[in-house]
Design a protein that fits this description.
This protein is α/β, with parallel strands linked by helices. The protein has 3 domains: 2-222, Alpha-lytic protease prodomain-like (Up-down Bundle), CATH 1.20.1510; 224-303, Cation efflux protein, cytoplasmic domain (Alpha-Beta Plaits, 2-Layer Sandwich), CATH 3.30.70.1350; 304-397, 2-Layer Sandwich (Alpha-Beta Plaits). It is 61% helix and 15% strand. It has helices at residues 2-10, 18-50, 53-79, 94-122, 131-158, 161-186, 194-222, 228-239, 274-292, 307-323, 357-371, and strands at 246-254, 260-269, 294-303, 328-336, 341-349, 375-383, 386-387, 393-394.
Length: 397
Amino acid sequence: MKGLLQRIFLRGGSPEDPEVRRRAGALAGGLGIGCNLLLFAGKLAAGVMSSSVAMVADAVNNLSDAATSAVTLVGFRLAGRAADAGHPFGHGRAEYVTGLIVSLAILLMGFELGRSSVSALFHPAAVQTSALSCGILVCAIALKLGMFLCNRTLGRMLESDTLRAVAADSLSDAASTGVVLLSALVGPRTSFPVDGVAGLLVAVLILRTGWEAARSTLDPLLGRPMNRELAEDIDRLVLAHEQILGIHDLIYHDYGPGRAMMSFHAEVPADGDLLALHDVVDHIERELKNRHHIDTVIHMDPVVKDARTDALRARVEGLARELDEEITLHDFRITAGPHHTNVMFDVLVPYGFRLTDAQVTAELTRGIKGFSERYFPVIQVDHSYVDDGEGAQAGKD
């Protein structure tokens, strides 16, 4: 399936290409609208024939899925629109908004289904199962599993949280319909309110899916850290240029797939040729644009390389590592005066670090003063914008 979808949609293009994403969104949206309307009609008929609250609720869930598929279709079309005067960074975040709307619709349907199922627990009605109604549910499960595989493949190809949310909803629907089918088979054989319990289980599954989908689509809207693998690849690309001594203060802004901006500081030799270094930095910006589709602004930080500065920096880095191996330094420089020597640098610590910024400053100041009372530390504590792969942030230099 993956190979077929790649031939249809990618056609040698990038997964971040707005046109590629628009075509994929059109397929997912159109498939969702058609299949869910078909499922709604079939399940509603089965629910009416069987007098099953769970089946009718499952049918209404498919009707809401058809509506969210329409939202998905519209969202991808909006996201594919080019930048304009009112939206200079494009409309890519419309895809994220679409995913959030889909997840909210899932949560609402789960709540409504839960309420009707609780009512069925206290006021159970007889369920009449037929071969036709069970056959409809079996076909519905097979169709939803097919939709799940298609949307999951598209979501992975395009790294789309919206399509992943739609895929998760399809899998949740298949599981919930399976519970309804089990209820239809067991219900007539017992006085226990199986129908209400099944409906409640379906509601819990739907609510869980909606919550996970909402969380994944909220992250890019609120502002999430840069992916660590991407940051490491940027490090390799930039530091491959011998004129660049180090990079830090990397900040990433996500305006939708294929629409990102980034800035960072590049350390360069203070005694280097300014025009030559500027040319190198311009070249790096073009490389990043071509390779990662990121518009980049690079600030050059001149670094003085001499034996005294390098030796003191090494000693201060040792102090930092005693606090935590993740802590790094940058913009390290010293200025000597008649009475004291300023030791100025930025220190990068992980978010959620066990010490406050003030405590980090105090610990490093104490250590530097231990080297010499003439040293006067001027310390700026920074925090990284790069994901550590476990949902937190990590230091990076």
